[in-house]
Amino acid sequence: MSLYFNNAFAKQPLAQVASIMQPYLRDKFENPLTESDDAEDCRRQVESGREAVAALLESKPGEIYFVSSGTEANNWALKGAATAHQKRKNHIIISAIEHFSVFQTAQFLQRQGFDLTIVPVTPEGFVDPHDVEKTIRPTTVLVSIQAASDEIGAIQNLREIIELKKRHDDVLFHTDAVQFLCYEMLSVSRHPFDLVSLSSNALYGPPGIGALYVREGARIQPLLHGGMQEEGMRPGLQSTALIAGFGEAARTGIAQKGNWKQQLAAIQQRIFESVSGWGLSVTGSKNCRLVDNIHVLADVDGEALLTLLLSEGIKSSSGSTCYQYAQKESHVLSALGVSREETQGAVLFTTGIDQTQEDIDILVEATGRMLAHLRRIKA
Amino acid sequence: MGNDMNVTAILDTFGLLCPMPIIKTAAKMKELRAGDILKILSDDPGIKEDMPAWCVTSGNELLLLEESGDEFYVYVRKKR
Fold first, then answer.
1. Residue B18 C-alpha, separation from nearest chain A C-alpha, in angstroms
2. Which residues of B48-71 are buried (b: 16+ CB within 10 A; e: fewer)?
3. Number of Cβ pairs < 8 A linking chain A and chain B
4. Which residues of B are catalytic?
5. DSSP H helical ranges for A118-200
6. Cβ of A219 and B23 within 8 Å?
7. Are A374 and A347 within 8 A, CB to CB?
8. Do A200 and A210 contact (CB within 8 A), yes or no?
9. Concatenated DSSP letters of A249-275
10. Which of B17, B19, B23 sits opposite A225 (nearest CB)?
């Protein structure tokens, strides 16, 4: 039984991921850049992992650089692109609902003197590619639009966004595909982004490892210096265990993605129906949405609802770290036009592949019961 | 001056520091034929010393090392 509905925040790594990592956690510990049979084995695992991650995007293995997380990938994409071209260009474009690792990095660059444009979204959370194009200037170095929102699940129209590249080929296009890639496909040959951020754990791999896809010929600066790993672009001793685990998660994801998507779409539909039954509506669009995302604005205090659910072993969240820890309204919900008062009812359930109909029965029954209880208190 | 050269391939090592520009140059050279000219782009000032030294040890011919602001353009002919 799994009453864990926080899969957007962390996923349980697959059993086969843990298995493939095991020998490299202790016995086979050597630096993949050195010369010995064990080091050669580590090197093979690293390159096999790189090939598997490249296959996810249908890219060349040499275009995949391992980093520590999706957050680092996003930081590197923005800072690396901005600093590589800053003598000629100084303008960055992002959407209003980016993950904080893009949003706050862009704000950091703004404080360093870069110009920043934040493109608004529709009330359903969609970026209009025409709005993006209107903001592109001769000095624009980078456009960064998240493939899918970790908070409200909105999937952007990547095809139309990357169409802009044809008319603005001197601008780098980045997408944060961390949440998107677990259940959706992104081929860089059909959608030729210059930079794509990935996270292993979001694909049921180990935490502590991610990757940045950098199109061959796209120029970005490294964030770190002082080593030959990752072609000198991301130095630091490679973790064979984490890369092997990431690779295994990528291989499994490629094979299982279709089944997982179908399974979670059925679960999502079931919960959507319950949300209607509770007299609530789903935040954002029900279409063009990640299949694991159910975000609602309850008419009761969201934190109270989460606490009551947790008392029955059901783990879920408000969807916004800022709200959870600082009682500050979510920048994503604000961008949708949600009022501060409404934000207080935010609840996010993100499902996972281990969940059964029985788990969903428990979630639906408990949430309905807790909502009724809180409504009675409120009245 | 470099614009007059009949460059066979370009290697962009922008952002990379020693020893990566040399390692990448050595790897790229393996793809080329004797007589081919490789143009290396770099913003590492260390390349001013590293590339001439590598050309001597590797037996390749350093044709030109141009500076343009903070950037360096190095032209190397593969000898064998």
1. 8
2. eebbeebbeebebeebebeeeeee
3. 28
4. 18
5. 129-135, 158-167
6. no
7. no
8. yes
9. HHHHHHHHHHHHHHHHHHHHHHHHHHH
10. B17
Name the helix (H) or strand (E) containing A114: none
Mean pLDDT over A99-103 rounds to: 95
Residue A102 scores a pLDDT above 70: yes
Q: What is the DSSP string of B4-15?
A: GS--SEEEE-TT
Spell out which residues of chain A touch residue B20, defining contact as CB-CB under 8 Å.
228, 231-232
The total domain count for chain B is 1
Domain that holds residue B54: 2-77
Per annotation, catalytic residue among A42, A182, A288, A322: A322
Q: Do A222 and B16 touch (CB under 8 A)?
A: yes
The distance of A229 to chain B (nearest Cα, Å) reads 10
Residue of B11, B16, B28 to mutate, interface with A, max A Cβ within 10 Å: B16
CB < 8 Å to A84, chain B? 14-15
To the nearest whole Å, the CA of B59 is away from the closest chain A CA by 24
pLDDT over threshold 70, residue A322: no
What is the predicted ipTM? 0.77
Rg of chain A over Cα atoms, rounded to whole angstroms, equals: 21
pLDDT tens for each residue of A133-167: 999 999 999 999 999 999 999 999 999 999 999 99
Residues of A in contact with B12 (CB under 8 A): 217, 219
Q: pLDDT tens, A253-299?
A: 999 999 999 999 999 999 999 999 999 989 999 999 999 999 999 99
Average pLDDT score over residue span A118-126? 97
Residue A225 host element (H or E): none
Please name the residue of chain A whose CA is at the shortest distance from the CA of residue B19: A228
CATH code of the domain covering residue B19:
3.30.110.40
Side chain identity, residue A226: G
pLDDT computed for residue A326 by the predictor: 58
A62 Cβ under 8 Å from any chain B Cβ: no
Report the pLDDT averaged over residues A218-231.
95
Residue with tokens 């916004």: A320
Q: Is A221 on the interface with B (CB under 8 A)?
A: yes
The string of pLDDT tens digits covering residues B9-44 is 999 999 999 899 999 999 999 999 999 999 999 999
